[in-house]
Amino acid sequence: MKHPDLLLFHGQLLSPPAAAVALGPDVSLSSIPDGAIVGHRGKIVDLGPTAEVLERTTPGPNTRMIDAQGRVVLPGWVDPHTHMLYADDRLDEMELRHQGKGYLEILAAGGGILKSMRDFRAAADGVLAESLLERLKEAVQSGTVALEVKSGYGLSLEEEMRALRVIDRIAKATGVPITPTLMAAHALPPEVDRQAYLKECDLAATQAAKAGLAKAADVFVEEGVFTPEEGRRLLTHARQAGLTMRLHADELAPSGGAELAAELGAASADHLTAATAAGLLQMAEAAVSAVVLPGTSFFLHRQPLDAERVRRAGLIAALATDCNPGSSPFRSMAMMVALAFHQNRFTVAEAITMATINAAHVLGEAATLGSLTVGKRCSLLVLSSHDVRDLVYRPGAQMTWAVVESGRVLIWQGRPTEEVEAWTIS
Ligand SMILES: [Zn+2]
Q1: What's the CA-to-centroid distance between 270 and ligand 1, angstroms?
Q2: Which of 324, 343, 362 is the last residue of a domain?
Q3: CA of 149 to the centre of ligand 1 (A)
Q4: Same domain, 358 and 402
Q5: Is residue 367 part of a domain?
Q6: Whether residue 69 is found in the same domain as residue 197
Q7: Are 197 and 234 in contact (CB under 8 A)?
Q8: At 55, is the secondary structure helix, strand, or coil?
Q9: Which of 104, 115, 172, 235 is the most buried (most CB within 10 A)?
Q10: Residue 424, class by beta-carbon neighbours within 10 Å (0-12 exposed, 13-18 middle, 19+ buried)?
Q11: Domain, as residue range, for 393
């Protein structure tokens, strides 16, 4: 390397460690108060105090120079749990819920996940791709540099495969790392019998893995959705097909989901607001990550998962938006960091660790993402602020000054760059 592609200097570099960490009293961020980062061919090739890095770096005419002017520089957010591919909103349902209507009444009024299923099935590929692209842009604006997107509103073999193809299309169109997850087992579709649908889910796992269209499979294990026995069967099959195992577990009631995740050695169990203390401990012992979803608790006015329960269990915990039309329409990971602090009572350092390295770990990408480390992707978030606590002090404020994804500047001075504006579905 004669001249690097990118040189960021005078930044206040804050980073979690290079590998995932269990939450506990030791969680902290390392700091270089006046630091520089050198990026080349999409990766971080050097970093350290600005004076030292400038001494050993020779910028050329094509080096992108970024003077961060003392602003906070973090690894970009990784969002490890989204249902960002959906066709339409569920605004009416939100109002019904606010009036005190229960889930069954909402279903009877044509709401709930089956509305999302009908909307999805009725939407053309182009419409779905366009809406996913718009939501992805909003996520990037908040500092997200990699994310997971689940299928799960098609609820048939054919429609779930269609969902995965749309996700793949957007991953290719934007170059943003998207981890696709098959979630055929999101709900039972009304038109088929239970056993027949379980078989269809198995078939989808086999096909998705074979086509390289999914990396993981997720099952909604919850009272009234799929039982732990069904979850065990579906996930065991998915693992045999070559997919990583994920679970929606214990969101509404203790349903044995955390325990099942531990038994299977899943990559993660997510939600966990109603998980038992024993279940959380078993997860920690089996090195199963917990994905905390504060947007959902906020939006549904439910008790959030308390940080102290996560610390006491010694869990590797991550944060995610759970972006979906019914219970968490958030796309911003910055907002999740703020909610994690205020609602769940995580510290700022914990919330940032959960939204970066631990989130990357859930997606199997801790070696390439989630910290400011030489050799990892040069994927950075430069805040508009000089104090990282502003992230939680001003929830909802526009805190992004710049976003760099694998060396590409996607947001500059708070606005999408020409490269992002040029993203189109073809
Ligand atoms: Zn979810």
Answers
A1: 7
A2: 362
A3: 10
A4: no
A5: no
A6: no
A7: no
A8: helix
A9: 235
A10: exposed
A11: 6-74+373-421
Q: How far is the CA of 416 from the centre of ligand 1 (A)?
A: 28
What separation in Å is there between the alpha carbon of 192 and the centre of ligand 1? Answer: 23
Residue that has been written with the tokens 């053309």 in this structure: 124
Convert the pLDDT of each residue in 41-96 to its tens digit: 999 999 999 999 999 999 999 999 999 999 999 999 999 999 999 999 999 999 99
> Would the pTM of this model clear 0.90, i.e. be above it?
yes
Same domain? 138 vs 242: yes
Segment 12-36, tens digit of pLDDT: 999 999 999 999 888 999 999 999 9
Amino acid identity at 5: D
Cα(402)–Cα(397) distance, rounded to whole angstroms?
A: 15
Tell how strand 43-49 and strand 30-40 pair up.
Answer: antiparallel
Residue 405 lies in a domain: yes
The CA-based angle 45-137-115, given to 5 degrees, is 135
Task: Count CA atoms closer than 13 A to 54's CA, side-chain side.
Answer: 12
Assigned domain for 274 exists: yes
